[in-house]
Amino acid sequence: MYALILNIPGPNDAVDTVIESLVKSVIALLLLLASFGYLTLAERKILGRMQSRYGPNRVGIFGVMQPLADGLKLLLKEQITPREVRTGVYLLAPAISIFVAIMAFAIVPIGPPLPWLGKVRVLAVANVNIGILYLLAILSLGVYGIVLGSWSSSNRYSLLGGLRSSAQMISYELSLGLSIVAVVLLAGTLSPMGIVAAQNHAGLSWFILLQPLGFMLFVVGGFAETNRAPFDLAEAEQELVGGYHTEYAGMRFALYYMSEYINMVTVSALVTTLFLGGWVGVGNGILFTLTTSAPWFQLIGVFWFFFKTLAFLFFYFWIRATLPRIRYDQLMWFGWKIMLPLSVVNMLATAFYVSLS
Amino acid sequence: MVKDYVPLLILAVVAAGFALTNIGITLVVGPWRPTREKMDPYESGMTEIQPPRQRFPIKFYVIAMLFLLFDIEAISFFPWAVLLRPLHFSGFIEMFIFVVALLIGYLYIWKKGALDWE
Amino acid sequence: MIPLIVTTIPIHVTAADYGAVLPELVVAAGVLLMLILDVFVPRAQRLQVTTATSLLVILLSFAATLHLWTAGSASAFYGTMTSDRFAVFFDAIILLAAALAVLLSPSYIAVSEFDPGEFYALLLASAVGMMLMAGGTSFMLLFLALELLSLSLYILSGFERSRPRSQEAGFKYFLLSSFASSFLLYGMALVYGATGSTQLRVINFCLHGLGCASTVASSPLLFVGIGLMVVGFAFKVSIVPFHMWTPDVYEGAPTPVTAFMSVTTKAAVFAAFVRVFNFSLSGVESHWYGLIWALAIATMIVGNVLALTQTNMKRLLAYSGIAHAGYILVAMAANTPAGITAIAFYFLVYTFMNIGAFIIVSVLESQGETGDEISTYRGLWQRNPELAGATAVFMFSLAGFPPTAGFFAKYLAFSAAVQAGHTELAIVGVLTSLISIFYYLRVVVVMFMQPEGAEKQGGLIPAAAQWAIGATLAGTIGLGIIPTGFFNYATQSVDAMRAVFGLP
Questions:
Q1: Which residue of A272, B5, B109, C288 is surrounded by the most CB atoms within 10 Å?
Q2: What is the chain B residue with the closest CA to A154?
Q3: Nearest residue on chain B to C41, judged by CA atoms?
Q4: pLDDT in tens, C141-159
Q5: Euclidean distance between CA atoms C411 and C413, whole angstroms
């Protein structure tokens, strides 16, 4: 449509690329923000039900307006900046956090490539052939937002929370990375599109079936990476008040909160892409073959992607309602002495299998 | 191909714009009524006795160092993982030797107690 | 839909490649073994087990070098590494020094309560770095090897954590040496920029006009790069004016470490120095000859003059080491096969006599608190005649008296310079050697002619140290009386390297 308006000559034009990515970026941003808002509501509702209570139900029917009300409240609250903070870093830290969270989602393909306006368009913000490497780089940057925020707050709870949180994140990042190596070994590519394609064979070829251990390692690592229960030690209220964001109020706090939920979405989307076959539906290749179907029918892939991602997000909340928070020494012990050796063994076993095939 | 990375650049601009706008809004929107107590660092209602930026346990440094070590090794696995199929079994053997060397170091730090967190 | 990455792999590493680095591989495996032994062997037996294992590893590696000596030159890993006889000759020297250091260590470790596994692992790791340095034929490998040996030695220098001097040594060495490494790396980068290759052979061809424009030889990049590389190398082998760290580090570091590094870093770095300058950059000799010439003269004069005033044995040996680096530079400046042969032979001799001197220091050190002061040597003749006799031999050899090996080594170096037409270097060398006689003989005089102040009892000398003294003594005297066999080996090693570089 915009091609007509702007009178663009050909589909390979640079302007086309720029406009396409601009549109995709804005859509991705809005998607992530909307999912943040409604995930908070969903979490409260689900947790409430699991704990035999209602959850928010006053603002709108079933509380559907609750996220908007929360957002407005956070926006209009007094933004307290304590006296001793390092103002520049203090203000920048939440921005870094949310920036990194949004950037990480860029390489996740949410559906099969679709022909549209004279060109096959990839349903991911970016389709780079080293997507997984990019992802790991961006995930590592996530620590910065937390460390800088906690350090610049000049508050002992923040500092301790930030230290704990960063030590936890880097510890689990190792096994997270190594479990991805196993997937890369099987797929033979670092491109997320390629990894989904590698799972797009007839029959059962999702990597969760070939990599059950790798899947578990990735899930645990993903939980730790997002600082979610049972690994939410960074914000253990009993000992650390709010953790690294103790001194943040209003919208600045909201940015941290937002990045946590966006990271959850990203991890869920990654679980879907790396292990659950991405946009490939159940029974693909048996009942029908997506890639040879009509374009409109391929949109069902988008549905599958969201279905799997949301199911995994539900799993996130379910775990939070089920498992108690683990102790810090247990956390480090588990990460370094269980997860790391297991992920190395898993990688080697996979490599052995792949090198013989 | 550089062209593939243009979308990332554009998303970076959009994301940075979003983040900085939000931070900017916090500077202008909302009431601003500072009092002395309100501007104190949060200390569970107590008066702050010592400044919080003090030395913290060396364990964190050790963990950071070990992370650097192992993460760099982990990154070196990626190109190998992509190319293992054409490298065949000899590729596996080579990396196996590397991993064994790495695991000996791992065993060493474990036995030395670098991974214990009392 | 999405094409999987299809790649042909051009890299084929064969068993022959590994064969060419067999000595290094054995020692590297030894490093890992040490780490395991350190945590799994009970504390009571740890020292004996790790010492024995390190000796065994060194012995195995030595056997591998003997094998490589007969196997002939091979270029491995796409020209980054060579196993020519020059490399093997230096490998053997490094292993010899490592074995002597290991023999020296147990008594020291027992007193200082080091972790023996860690100590030996670092010692062997630095030996791996040195051996790779001696055989490296690519800037990349040379730099990595240099870093491996330096990093291990930084830690070893500061290993005695409870002693401030040792801490100072480690820290000073680390700061200054890493600075020098960056000089070297920068120089390598510029030479790479000028010639388009990091491979020494290719650079050599390039500077002889093969595959490169003739303007390369006069490019300012090359000129600056060579200068920076000289600075980097000169620092590592403590050549004046980059020698400041040497006395402090030698004094502060644990004595076995000092004994080891005083010989082996010089040997390994000089091997690379020679390989890079006398062979790879032989096409542009005019660029670097003047620099080496000036450094040689400055080093000989400053090293010997400053040694005169020392009262501490380790510092004295440090300045003596600087002076010896100067003599070796004389041979290097000669830039003839005879000169390179002299360097190779010099290091073999230097290993015996210098480590021998350090063993004596170490033995005396274990008998008293001020063991490294020259005053400790007072009346050693009365207390312990054997030890005093051995010390005298090492001092005579370091000073260059016939019939010890030191004389022959120095003679070769200076005669190479004279043959190459650099008589002035030889004259300075001989004159400064005369100065050096004063401070070497002072030690001997103190031992034989001055009665000891207080009544002291000579302690027991550990058996391992006795063996080590015996070995170094045999080497120092044996190489002086019948040098021919080993001199032939040195000649063969240089011939092998010349063949590798394709020079006439």
A1: A272
A2: B52
A3: B111
A4: 999 999 999 999 999 999 9
A5: 5
Per-residue pLDDT reduced to its tens digit, C219-252: 899 999 999 999 999 999 999 899 999 999 999 9
Is A291 in contact with C2 (Cβ distance < 8 A)?
no
A114 by DSSP, 3-state: which?
Answer: strand
Average confidence score pLDDT of chain C: 89
Interface ipTM: 0.89
Q: Do C4 and A113 touch (CB under 8 A)?
A: no
pLDDT digits (tens, 9 = 90+) for C419-443: 999 999 999 999 999 999 999 999 9
Q: How confident is the model at residue A116 (pLDDT cuts 50, 70, 90)?
A: confident
Cα–Cα distance list, C97 to A60, B68, C93, C156 (Å) = 83, 34, 6, 15
Per DSSP, the three-state class of A130 is coil
Task: Tell me whether residues C5 and A113 touch, CB distance under 8 A.
Answer: no
Fold of the CATH domain B2-112: Methane Monooxygenase Hydroxylase; Chain G, domain 1 (1.20.58)
- Residues 6 or more apart whose CB falls under 8 angstroms from that of A244 comprise A146, A149, A150, A153, A158, A161, A162, A165, A234, A235, A256
Mean pLDDT of chain A: 84
Distance CA C427, CA A194 (A): 73
- Residue B8, token pair as written in the block: 């990332």
Measured distance CA(B73)–CA(B79) in Å, rounded: 11
CB atoms within 10 A of CB A48: 16
CA distances (Å), origin C91, targets C82, C133, C342? 12, 9, 17
Q: Are A66 and A41 in contact (CB under 8 A)?
A: yes
Q: DSSP string of B31-57? A: -----TTTTSPP-TTSPP-S-S-----
B108: closest CA of chain C, how far (Å): 6
**pLDDT value for C5:** 44
Closest by CA to C279, choosing from C142, C484, C145, is: C142
Chain B residues with CB inside 8 Å of A135's CB? none
Element (H, E) at A115: strand A114-115
C466-502 confidence digits (pLDDT tens)? 899 999 999 999 998 888 889 999 999 888 888 877 7
| Closest CB to B108 among C5, C13, C35 | C35
- Measure CB to CB from residue B101 to each of C13, C32, C40 and give the nearest one: C32
Closest Cα in chain A to C1: A197
Q: Residue type for A336, please?
A: W
Assess contact for A248 and A150: CB atoms under 8 A: no
Domains of chain A, by residue range, sit at 80-356
